[in-house]
Amino acid sequence: MDSTTGNNDLIKVGDYIVIQKQKYFKLHQLNSKCDITLGKDKVDLKAIVGQPLWTTFKMLPRNKREFGLEIATQVESLPEAVMKEVSSGNDNRNITDDGKSQLLSTEDIVAFRDSGLSAQNIVGKLRESSTTFKNKTEYSQEKYLKKKEKKYFEYIVVRKPTVRLLAQIFYDKDQFSVLGLRHDSIAQILSYANIQSNGTYALFESGTQALLGAAILDSLTGGNLVNISSGRTPPKQAILGMNFSEEKLKRFLSVRLCDFVSKLEGKEVVWGNEAKSRVNGHPKNASAVPSEKQEVSSSDGSQKIDSSLRVVEAKEPSVGEGSPGNEASVSSSDKASDSQDVTGSKKRKLVDDENQTGRPDKRPRWLETLDMAVDLLKPCGADGLIIACKEFPLNIIQKLLPYVKPSRQLVVYSLYREPLVQLYTELKKTRKDVIGLHIYENWLRSHQILTDRTHPDVTMSASGGHILVGTKVTP
């Protein structure tokens, strides 16, 4: 292993890591305080800084529900440690579950935990204080101890974030926050879209925490990903959680749909002082302005609006001022602007804005990203179009499909089947340049693999969503 790879595998402050405690996973950004809450326990993570990923740490009790960490040289299973010298019975039929078999009270057990007693000692006391434990069969004893181990487990593993882990974390927390997108569905989408390391792909994604964007970007080495969304600052939790390098993040171009389509169609995207002057009814180089109604060119096309009700868009921040995607809109009327309720500070701000109308604004970063995305797609097109969103995607496909190369894939994901069925029908009727349309549904079930106890898991998700696949051709 070279030095570069070794440094990337070390845990650093500011990185995102995945904390695993048995089957529980948590995504966490390591900050300077180095604290994390696991259930009701507060864990100090200072000991993990500078250590390699995949290191196992043991939780050391400090104060009440507070733990430190040390590197674990050996991880011992709690049932194996407790059952070394324990006899077992042959039959459970004579055991009565009357709720009185445990002699320790809840207060006693809480006192053990607050005193900093180790998990093995606590479970050992629970076993000794149980009047029925020795009479249980070996299988029942093991089942009881595994249940206690899950509650008092004292080992954690620090893992590197991956797309599969992030998909599992988001899905387990709230499957509807990612549109029911499981890791097997992500794998199928990447396969159907024929994602290659040097390709250029267009992705419209909303409501999935940028899981698909992270998965595609993780597969690229020399290509680019144009991430299209309804706003200029879409959620990027999965992108941030993957700890991508600056070089790889440059291949991720995030643009707003209306700006992107306008630019592709050769329309002008207005911003800054020019947008203000147009909205206020004073377009540049215009000799006359209609008194009753005016036409304002927007990303959605030319739209007539009433001049008595104007929408003032806040000035786009410059490169050195805050995040490039922040925007706000304020509705006002001519009567409200003349009202006496306007404070002095607001009046001064309006005067300053009017004085700065003629000044050239700095070119915002999102506009530079927009130009780069258009330069990638407009000359030769994208190598694939992937859509995963809450909206009905027909209009999005109609706008973006002309910029996809022939013999490339169209992949649309939806949690429900009905939107894809309707989309399938519309594409069959109206589009001659899309063939091979199919709708797929993934089905995944995990199994328990144990000696003489191999069976599917009792609980499972009903569906991993539905996928529509088609091929773009030249009609």
Automatic annotation (TrEMBL):
One of its GO terms (biological process) is tRNA methylation. The keyword Nucleus applies. GO terms for cellular component: nucleus; tRNA (m1A) methyltransferase complex. It comes from Lygus hesperus. Residues 297-308, 328-342 have a biased composition (Low complexity). Residues 277-364 are annotated as: Disordered. Signal peptide: none annotated. Keywords: Nucleus, tRNA processing. Its main location: nucleus. The keyword Glycosyltransferase does not apply. It comes from the Eukaryota. It is found in: Nucleus. InterPro entries: TRM6. This is tRNA (adenine(58)-N(1))-methyltransferase non-catalytic subunit TRM6.
